[in-house]
Amino acid sequence: MDHELGRPIAERALACGKRKRQLTVRIGAPKKAEDVDWVCPYQIAGLRDSRVEAAYGVDALQALMMALEKIRVRLERAGGNCTWVGGEEGDAGFPRLVPSYFGAAFATRINRQIDRELDRFGRALKSKKNGVRGSKRST
Q: Are 43 and 84 members of one domain?
């Protein structure tokens, strides 16, 4: 199925691989579709296949979120190691989304694990910043 991007609502420039190949990710506005609820077009210009693709959702936000996830997967499959302007080396700026299609309990469990890791990382940074060494806590 052919999709039209329309006027992009967001765009991100990326440098990928050892040769720093330039890619441009463009995301179109989600819109109501006839055959499904909502569709969000996107394009990754600079790949061999730069055609406009689409992600679908029951509402505009889900369609947009699914487009972001499909972009992440597509970049990963294309060889990864993409960096967005202002980002850390190897960070394309398209983080993994926790899937809810396995149910709310699964998504909640995964999000709690992520929160624990973020908290642990934040405490380690704070300790490092304050010059505290080791993991012993005072009681």
A: yes
